[in-house]
Write a structure and sequence with these properties.
about 750 residues, alpha+beta, four-stranded parallel beta sheet, 28 helices, Nucleoside Triphosphate Pyrophosphohydrolase
Length: about 750
């Protein structure tokens, strides 16, 4: 009975040659020796060196596609992502900050990732192909006699697509034309395979429903491991890793992105934190992520009783199978810390490390693809129960071996029959010669043939037989073999028979599970009937992280439509398709985001309402006074495309209080310090029809200031008295809404103070 199996040996972060060998061996054993169906997760497909680096080999690529087609390798869908192509496009979104282990790619290479997205979106690889050809041409002309304008333009364009962008600006690459050409060639080959796999719809299995995951998500598993696991070895190392992970977890609860944890660990190493402890921490993170991936697969056969993870410490069979499994996997993964500097917390590299066999000899996937073909029926899963991996493992393995051997024997019989048929003229040659001698006109030819040495006769007959049988073998539907093909087939079949008979599987097992006969009910998973746009995905995430849908309890004029149910999401997608609308977070920058909310009307129809929300806290506006006069900035404002006189203002820093923001803005825009404590006058929503953010208004006195011309569009600085301010307002020389609002708030504040004094 075939089982769905997840292989942690194929984790995307495993990148050394030894780890690739182990992963290839595990894949071979499961599909050939054990007869199981290997289910890959998206991350294993998109960023695994064991998968990616071998795609350069055309034979391997075809064999891999054949394994998918035969049903022994499948891909598990996750969330609302249907295909590998969709997942790859999603992973290179800017907000993911995906850490690539195998792809010769960095998330900071914005242009290269944008080109990849376009290629995948339209299933058109011509753009990246053309850049690859450009790199090859530049490589050939690198030592040319002179550079013409065309050469320079192509050179600059190619360098530009590898530019990296971070908070410090743009950084050009130092890659050679040869390296660029190889990177682009390999990305082309990789995306070609991804597109092909995305069109093979029957290789995907439906994901678990989100409600079924329960405590099996990455953050939950990591939390339980760092709190409840008791190590039997490496106790000191575990203690340091546990402390590190506990601190990170407290800051990132419910974070299920492994890359976030790895980036945090890298930063700790940079600050001088225990390197070995951080590397061991990544090994723990990787394993917990593997368990989460495994649990997301519908009907996967595990090496542990999932109830032990749900209710740690209450194992009814006397031993926690999950703890035992985790301990065993961690020991294998860490491997005594060998080559830990090559395996853990390694920086992204913009080069391509080709896999080299060297002294290692992994089981060939080409052989696996051929051997799997000996059993014609596609593997099927028992649709009643999902048994654990160790259940009936020996019987299943034996049954698998018999199936393969029977398939091989049938092929051998067929190949022998083909061979006998094609050599039958040679075997019956004497009989036909005697018959031919009875015809007088054939006697001379027969006599001549008999005079030819027997060795030459045999050679000529074999050549003629090969030519004739080759032509016959090409006849569609005949399924015959030529002479050479028959011999090669027999030899290959005998070799495969030996491989199957004598190879011992090294597949991973958990000894604690051998005595257990537990099973789970088969589930259909959650079929993906819709695919949310990236704008709506961002919208849902923002809604989870921030309360952007809160409403005035008294007024329900514009209720935001719920996105909690499938039907609600379908209606929003339908409204987008029919009326060319776009809902969700349609644009986001470091400062603001444009949100289009789905507003539910009385008749249950939808309306698209736009608003701009700040990506931080509320901003600040400062009425700054120097020696009793107001200090205004003359600035060029892009939104209105003209100069404007206004108070200093700015966005808030998420890590600062409003008072600290006031001090920072005054320092940045006027180069001055505040005298005394700022006075908060109130709050302004300057454009509530479009902008969802507010600003806090402060009145403060400042010391000597400087002209900061050129900074953020500042042209000059001007001082005005209160009376001059009123005149300028009346003459419409001051029309900035924040400044006008701040002046009115100050007037009200002064009026309130006068009344308070009068009452005294």
């Amino acid at each position: 009975m075939s089982k769905y199996v997840y292989l942690f040996e194929l984790d995307s972060v495993r990148k050394t040659d030894e780890e690739i060998i182990a992963g290839q061996a595990a894949l071979y054993d499961e599909i050939v020796t054990n007869g199981n169906i290997v289910v890959l997760t998206y991350n294993q497909m998109v960023d695994s060196r064991g998968f990616f680096s071998l795609l350069k080999n055309g034979e391997y690529k075809e064999a891999l596609l054949k394994l998918f087609d035969s049903g022994v390798i499948k891909i598990s869908q996750y969330g609302d992502i249907r295909t590998v192509s969709q997942y790859l496009m999603d992973s290179i979104e800017d907000d993911k900050q995906f850490i690539y282990s195998a792809l010769p790619l960095k998330y900071s290479q914005k242009r290269l990732t944008a080109i990849m997205k376009r290629c995948l979106l339209y299933s058109d690889l011509s753009e990246i192909y053309e850049y690859g050809q450009m790199a090859l041409a530049l490589k050939k002309n690198e030592n040319g006699e002179q550079y013409n304008d065309d050469y320079k333009n192509r050179r600059d364009e190619l360098i530009d697509i590898f530019v990296e962008v971070d908070k410090n600006g743009e950084h050009q690459t130092n890659l050679s034309w040869d390296a660029m050409a190889e990177i682009l060639e390999n990305l082309y080959s990789f995306m070609e395979t991804v597109i092909k796999l995305s069109m093979m719809h029957d290789i995907y299995i439906s994901p678990r429903a989100d409600g079924e995951l329960g405590c099996w998500k990455f953050s939950s598993i990591l939390d339980k491991v760092i709190r409840l696991y008791v190590p039997k070895d490496n106790v000191e190392l575990w203690g340091s890793a546990q402390t590190i992970l506990d601190n990170i977890y407290k800051q990132n609860k419910n974070e299920n992105n492994r890359s976030v944890y790895i980036r945090k660990l890298k930063k700790l190493v940079e600050t001088g934190t225990n390197v070995k402890g951080c590397q061991y921490a990544q090994a723990i993170v990787d394993l917990c992520y593997n368990y989460a991936c495994e649990s997301s697969i519908s009907n996967v056969s595990r090496h542990y009783d999932v109830r032990d993870l749900e209710d740690w410490g209450s194992a009814c069979h006397g031993e926690n199978t999950f703890e035992c499994d985790f301990s065993k996997r961690l020991k294998r993964t860490w491997d005594g810390g060998r080559k830990r500097d090559e395996r853990y917390l390694v920086d992204e590299k913009n080069d391509f490390k080709t896999f080299k066999l060297g002294k290692y000899s992994p089981p060939k996937i080409v052989n696996a693809a051929r051997i799997v073909g000996y059993v014609k029926d596609k593997p099927e899963i028992d649709r009643n129960y999902v048994f654990y991996y160790e259940n009936n493992a020996k019987k299943d393995k034996h049954r698998r071996k018999l199936k393969l051997l029977c398939g091989i024997l049938k092929k051998i019989v067929f190949a022998i029959l083909c061979f006998l048929i094609v050599i039958s003229p040679e075997l019956t040659g004497d009989y036909w010669t005697a018959k031919a001698m009875q015809n007088s006109w054939i006697k001379p030819a027969v006599a001549f043939w008999n005079s030819v040495p027997s060795g030459i006769q045999t050679m000529v007959m074999l050549i003629i037989t090969e030519i004739v049988t080759s032509l016959i073998a090409k006849i569609p539907g005949l399924d015959a073999l030529s002479l050479s093909e028959s011999l090669a087939e027999i030899w290959q079949l005998l070799r495969d028979m030996v491989r199957i008979t004598f190879r011992k599987s090294k597949a991973y097992v958990n000894s604690v599970m051998k005595g257990l006969d537990n099973s789970e009910h088969f589930c259909e998973g959650e079929k993906i009937r819709y695919a949310l746009t990236k704008e709506l995905k961002r919208y849902l995430k923002i809604c989870e992280d921030r309360d952007i849908t809160n409403e005035d309890s008294k007024y329900k004029s514009y209720p935001i439509a719920s996105l909690d149910t499938l039907e609600a999401r379908k209606q929003i997608l339908r409204d987008e398709e029919l009326h060319s609308r776009k809902y969700g977070v349609v644009y986001s920058s470091a400062y603001n985001m444009m949100v289009v909310d789905p507003i539910r009307k009385d008749d249950n129809e939808l309306m698209a309402y736009e608003r701009v929300l700040p990506n931080g806290n509320d901003g600040v506006v400062i009425l700054a006074k120097h020696k009793g006069k107001y200090v205004l900035l003359e600035q060029f404002r892009h939104a209105i495309r003209r100069r404007q006189y206004a108070c200093p203002r700015g966005f808030s820093d998420p890590n600062c209080t409003p008072i600290e923001d006031v001090r920072r803005e005054i320092r940045e825009e006027l180069g001055a310090d505040i005298i005394g404590e700022p006075i908060e006058l109130g709050r302004i929503a300057a454009d509530s029809g479009l902008t969802g953010g507010c600003v806090h208004v402060f009145l403060t006195n400042i010391g000597a200031y400087k002209q900061r011309c050129g900074h953020e569009g500042i042209i000059s600085t001007i001082e005005l008295t209160r009376k001059q301010m009123e005149i300028w307002v009346s003459k419409k020389r001051i029309d900035d809404g924040f400044t006008l609002g701040a002046l009115e708030l100050e007037r009200c504040w002064r009026l309130k103070r006068r009344r308070a004094r009068a009452e005294l």
